[in-house]
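Good morning,

Attaching, inline, the backbone tokens for the sequence recovery test we're adding to the shared suite. The designed sequence is right after.
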């Protein structure tokens, strides 16, 4: 009696957890597809779900049938007739799995090659995606643009992606558009993506890479072609002049404390260890997608980055006080 009540409580708990997990998947749902790569991957997923469902149903039906048909009957004393080694049963048990595996293998192999296709036509866009502990760098070699944690693309175009990593293995994944492909040190992987509608698509590192792996997010921002052109122009001719005395004070601090690691297009700051900060004031998110980019969050990040993102490599020469953080935030949010 007691045991069955515990069982029931456990079932309720598991159901609640399942419902909660389903709720987690709205923003980064691979079922809400917005591009051809994600569609191909989802089709493959459904194919394997149907094959596995078929196997499960057949096994359960046979098990139930055998349990009922060959159960021990009242008054039965002898052992039932033994039928080991039936050659037809053996043959089916080899043939059916072989057919099912072939049904899964052919589209899987075809799709794997299709999605890693490197052939490109003129004018298609290349993006080098570098996963780092714990943020993302996006380089546009043909455009001479480098940015961080926000990958801007035009809609309806095939984007060729080269995946690299200087430190450990990361994985690039944008559930609504496609992925996950690993960024592996010493090796370049290739994939492509296409967004069918403009919008902001959340992405996430999908390979455990250290203490802040779960905090290594990014956004893919898909623009209409003319808006994408505007973004390119803005990134090539950014506004970098401090717009107030406080911002000018912030630039002084930046020059002393930050410029050796961060670059800003249109200035003398060319550090490469940290994220490129060109157009920082236009970014939606801060610290690789985990905080909204606003003054309060930026100050908190500057004053204690380790609290927000344990294990990050942001090295402060000394503690930044409230006043300095205020000035730096003013300067950075001015970069547009
Ligand atoms: Cu990078 Cu997990």
């Amino acid at each position: 009696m007691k045991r069955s009540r515990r069982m029931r409580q456990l079932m309720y708990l598991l159901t609640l957890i399942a419902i909660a997990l389903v709720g987690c998947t709205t923003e980064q749902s691979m079922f809400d597809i917005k591009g051809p790569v994600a569609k191909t991957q989802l089709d493959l997923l459904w194919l394997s779900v149907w094959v596995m469902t078929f196997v499960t149903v057949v096994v359960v039906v046979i098990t139930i049938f055998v349990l009922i048909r060959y159960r021990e009957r009242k008054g039965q004393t002898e052992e039932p007739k033994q039928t080991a080694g039936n050659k037809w049963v053996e043959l089916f048990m080899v043939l059916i799995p072989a057919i099912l595996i072939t049904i899964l293998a052919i589209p899987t192999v075809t799709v794997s090659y299709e999605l890693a296709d490197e052939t490109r036509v003129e004018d298609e866009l290349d993006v080098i995606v570098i996963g780092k502990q714990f943020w993302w760098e996006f380089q546009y070699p043909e455009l001479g643009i480098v940015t961080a944690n926000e990958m801007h693309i035009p809609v309806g175009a095939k984007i060729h992606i080269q995946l690299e990593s200087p430190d450990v293995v990361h994985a690039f994944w944008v559930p609504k558009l496609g992925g996950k492909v690993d960024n592996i040190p010493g090796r370049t992987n290739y994939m492509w993506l296409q967004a069918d509608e403009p919008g902001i698509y959340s992405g996430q590192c999908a390979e455990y890479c250290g203490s802040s792996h779960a905090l290594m997010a990014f956004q893919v921002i898909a623009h209409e072609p003319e808006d994408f052109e505007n973004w390119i122009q803005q990134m090539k001719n950014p506004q970098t002049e401090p717009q107030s005395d406080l911002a000018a004070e912030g630039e002084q601090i930046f020059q002393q404390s930050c410029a050796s690691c961060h670059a800003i297009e249109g200035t003398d700051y060319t550090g490469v260890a940290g994220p490129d900060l060109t157009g920082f004031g236009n970014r939606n998110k801060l610290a690789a997608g985990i905080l909204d980019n606003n003054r309060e969050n930026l100050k908190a990040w500057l004053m204690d980055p380790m609290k927000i993102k344990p294990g990050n490599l942001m090295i402060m020469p000394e503690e930044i006080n409230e006043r300095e953080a205020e000035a730096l935030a003013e300067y950075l949010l001015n970069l547009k």
